[in-house]
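Appendix B. Worked example

We walk through a single record from start to finish. Start with the input: the chain for Multidrug ABC transporter ATP-binding protein, Seohaeicola zhoushanensis, length 316.
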Amino acid sequence: MVERAHFMSAILSIHDLKKSYASGQVALKGVTLEIERGEIIALLGPNGAGKTTLISIVCGIVNASSGSVTVDGFDIQRDYRAARKLIGLVPQEVALEPFEKVWNTVRLSRGLFGKQRDDALLERILRRLSLWDKRDARINELSGGMKRRVLIAKALSHEPRVLFLDEPTAGVDVELRKDMWDIVAELRAEGVTIILTTHYIEEAEAIADRVGVIARGEILLVEEKAALMERMGRKHIVLQLAEAVEGVPPALAHHRLEPGADGHSLVYTYDARGPRTGLTQLLNDLAASGLRLKDVQTRQSSLEEIFVDLVREKAE
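Next comes the structure step. The output line below is what the pipeline stores for this chain.
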């Protein structure tokens, strides 16, 4: 009998998940993560960080050494079939039957999850992915980008409530990348929860609600994207000068300045969390030095810079 936990706000609950192999390699070191219903969360991490291992355990492809995972209240070990029906996975690797037709591949995938036949739904999915005209083509006749679209169609065929996208845009064309993010937006509007792993940090910055950083099998942090950038972000002020400068003038050496690449600017960096920016004193000293200010521009650290800093801190 399938037991289901009630009154859970998170659709995916991962608690103290560990995975080690007979070789001694430790892939996950006690990962705990709560993912809310209907959110998009991006997991960022370098190769070998544990992202794919984590997804593989949740999807029942790999067994955990210890810990627990529930999907909408269903335990992935005790209630495997009920939990797995709720999950769609678009893997990194393209593993498809080469001589099977697109339509049969997608229809079979739906059937494997015990779903009743629904050709109208599958047609909508294939049209959404620009695959309808290729429905009678064999997999081995398709381009790499089209095969990736078939993987997405397979993952959506059984109407999952949680969708994993494991490095979905690595090596794909710009058109497919755009289509994929359009589909993600539609699915999100339908209440589907999406977990994305990516090296393309600008994509996480563009579409995710929360960002998790994982390195060496550990979650370093999970935070709302805007809050993460506000809390950890540095602000950069570019002082455009009327005259060219070689390096930082001695009179301004005590400020956190670096010369700009154009030879006509100085870049001032400060912590957005600090009580004072030090900018007023800098501008006073700049005027006293005789340098004429032409323009001032500001920008905030990107997630890319924050991510690199976090991983570097963990390695030290």
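Two observations about the output. The longest helix spans residues 174-189. Confidence is low (pLDDT under 50) at residues 1-8.
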